[in-house]
């Protein structure tokens, strides 16, 4: 009985459980190598890769967008400016009629009216008369040149005057457009070969400044070596823009050298031109003296 009791008191032995199998997360299986190409297609029969066309962006779209934005910005700014201006109060304009005019309301009595300018001071009265009387008198030692081609009885026509220029047709039309009026001319000679000519070219007084424009056009090409004197010339005393020039000698084989001097100036509606030619040198004093004396008479 004691043995049975002892047996009952002892706990039963627990048999150990079998360990669970460990599952590996790494695939340890070895994959067979694949052929580089499908087994049913040989390498030589593979199709060539086809290039996929790239769709390009249309040109000019960015420029068009910027231009449209700029236009809309300008339009919006203009509209905003007009709107601001419209909201402002209008500015009153000054009266067209002004009180206190600068001249007296009534004419002055006859005994208080100023005397008209004498003919010696009224330049227009002098030039409206016989223009030949304004020509400089023939200097001492000079004689009338009867071989002059263009002047007749102290006058020269528009056609004859235009013939002195290279493009006479253009000059003829240009002078007519400038309200050409007339030309007074004088021609002299001195010694064997020296000659001089004085031309007073008059234009009608009006909206055009024919005399000043014609004189400026003649002086414009004088510094040129080919067509002009090749120098800037010298100023004529008492004239605003008048100048006189001495040319370089021009020699032609078989001929005597040619010397020339020229003066161009204007006063009022009269443009004056003086030319001197000789086979001997012409001094600046010779042409300057004639120019200053002619300017005084205008």
What do these coordinates show?
By secondary structure, the protein is an alpha+beta fold. Helices cover 27% and strands 16% of the residues. The protein contains 7 helices and 8 strands; from the N terminus they run H-H-H-E-E-H-H-E-E-H-E-E-E-E-H. Strands 1, 2, 3, 4, 5, 6, 7 and 8 form an 8-stranded antiparallel sheet that branches. The longest helix is centred in the first third of the chain and has 27 residues, at 61-87.
Tell how many strands the DSSP assignment holds.
8
Q: Catalogue the unreliable spans.
A: 1-11, 22-26
User: What does the radius of gyration come to?
Assistant: 54 Å
For the largest beta-sheet, the strand count, sense and barrel status come to: 8 strands, antiparallel
In terms of topology, how is this protein built?
Blueprint: H1 2-9, H2 61-87, H3 123-128, E1 143-144, E2 155-156, H4 158-162, H5 168-177, E3 180-190, E4 194-203, H6 210-220, E5 234-235, E6 243-246, E7 259-267, E8 270-278, H7 284-297
Antiparallel strand pairs: 1-3, 2-3, 3-4, 4-8, 5-6, 6-7, 7-8
């Amino acid at each position: 009985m004691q043995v049975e009791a002892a047996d009952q008191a002892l706990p039963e032995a627990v048999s150990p459980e079998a360990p669970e199998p460990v599952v590996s997360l790494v695939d340890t299986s070895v994959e067979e190598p694949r052929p580089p190409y499908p087994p049913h297609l040989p390498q030589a029969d593979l199709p060539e890769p086809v290039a996929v066309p790239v769709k390009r962006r249309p040109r000019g779209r960015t420029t068009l967008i910027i231009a449209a934005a700029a236009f809309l910005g300008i339009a919006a700014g203009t509209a905003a400016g007009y709107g601001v201006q419209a909201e402002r109060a209008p500015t009153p304009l000054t009266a067209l009629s002004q009180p206190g005019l600068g001249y007296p309301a009534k004419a002055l009595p006859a005994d208080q009216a100023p005397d008209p300018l004498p003919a010696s001071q009224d330049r227009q009265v002098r030039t409206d008369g016989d223009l030949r009387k304004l020509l400089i008198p023939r200097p001492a030692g000079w004689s009338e040149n009867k071989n002059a081609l263009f002047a007749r009885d102290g006058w020269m026509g528009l056609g004859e005057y235009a013939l002195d220029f290279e493009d006479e047709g253009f000059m003829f039309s240009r002078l007519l457009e400038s309200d050409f009026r007339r030309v007074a001319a004088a021609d002299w000679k001195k010694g064997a070969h020296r000659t001089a000519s004085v031309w007073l070219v008059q234009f009608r007084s009006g909206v055009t400044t024919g005399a000043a424009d014609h004189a400026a056009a003649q002086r414009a090409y004088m510094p040129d070596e080919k067509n002009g004197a090749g120098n800037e010339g010298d100023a004529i005393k008492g004239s605003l823009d008048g100048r006189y020039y001495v040319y370089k000698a021009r020699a032609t084989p078989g001929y005597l050298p040619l010397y020339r001097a020229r003066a161009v100036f204007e006063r009022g509606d009269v443009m004056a031109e003086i030319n001197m030619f000789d086979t001997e040198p012409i001094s600046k004093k010779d042409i300057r003296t004639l120019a200053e004396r002619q300017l005084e008479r205008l």
